[in-house]
User: What shape does this take?
Amino acid sequence: MTPARPGAPIAVSLGDPAGVGPELVAEAWSQAARAGLAPFAVVGGVRLLSGAAASRGLALPIQPIASLAEVAEVFPRALPVLGSLDGAWRPGEPDEDGAALALASLEAATALAVSGEASALVTGPIAKARLAAVGFHHPGQTEFVAQACGIAAQDAVMMLAGPQLRTIPLTVHVALAKVPDMVSVDLIRRRARIAAEALARDFGIRHPRIAIAALNPHAGEDGRMGDEEARTIRPAIEALRADGIDATGPHPADAMFAPHMRGDYDVALCMYHDQALIPLKALDFDSGVNVTLGLPIIRTSPDHGTAFGIAGTGRASAGATIAAIRMAGDCAVRRAARG
Assistant: This one.
């Protein structure tokens, strides 16, 4: 891996061109000065972005560039777009050509971050089934980026972050029936260690506090509702505390996200996908960011999907896209300062 060069811009991938990604990136550039966003460039899509911007009534100046070295000069007056990748603006009409464009943009943007030409990577929302049809063999973009960085998929940790809450799902895209067998002392310890290191390095939290959720209702209620807490989760917490990590729990999940509890921790490590994502989306849907921890590069993404049904209508909020770009820039600054 090559460290990002000082002052390097952020690389943004298009996402599926039939979804809301392109229009929200256009909106983010139009609000960049007010939102305090670091300079960024979109990989591909000059014609696509122009059409997407017009659908929102934006008079978007676009400047094709041949290198990210041009971004600093171009960004204050136009949206820099790198390369010749492009496609038609057909909101709500996903097809294989669009999926191929999304994949090509993702591959190129990731390569820029891995090479150090970009300070961070922000990925637009994709449709996994559409990408699979054009040869994408990963569960999601997180696993793709991890492989590009030479990191094992299980060591790329998904954190959802918003203004009011940060959560990490211990298990992600698996059936709920499989979760109890997947919860292990080793997995909890590995995820928590990666989270603690990343929160200190990229988020400036010197001594991260990690609240670990129970799997069962009422934290198992002394074994009457399950024994995973006593058998697995509590021993993992004890081991983490012995390692010097401020971990607490297992906390009953029906209480730990209450307002008076959220101030007691910096991130909640949850046992399964919906346990982590429901509270985050309930509190911070329009400003939630998906951050991949444990990578040698910085990668963020808006925490929403392609929203094909409202693409091109102007109804999609750019809040999460703006938050993802802002968070990528902030993390890049902190990481550069640590050397």
User: Anything to note?
Assistant: The chain has a mean pLDDT of 94. Residues 23 and 52 are 5 Å apart (CA to CA). The first strand starts at residue 10 and ends at 12. The first helix runs from residue 21 to 30.
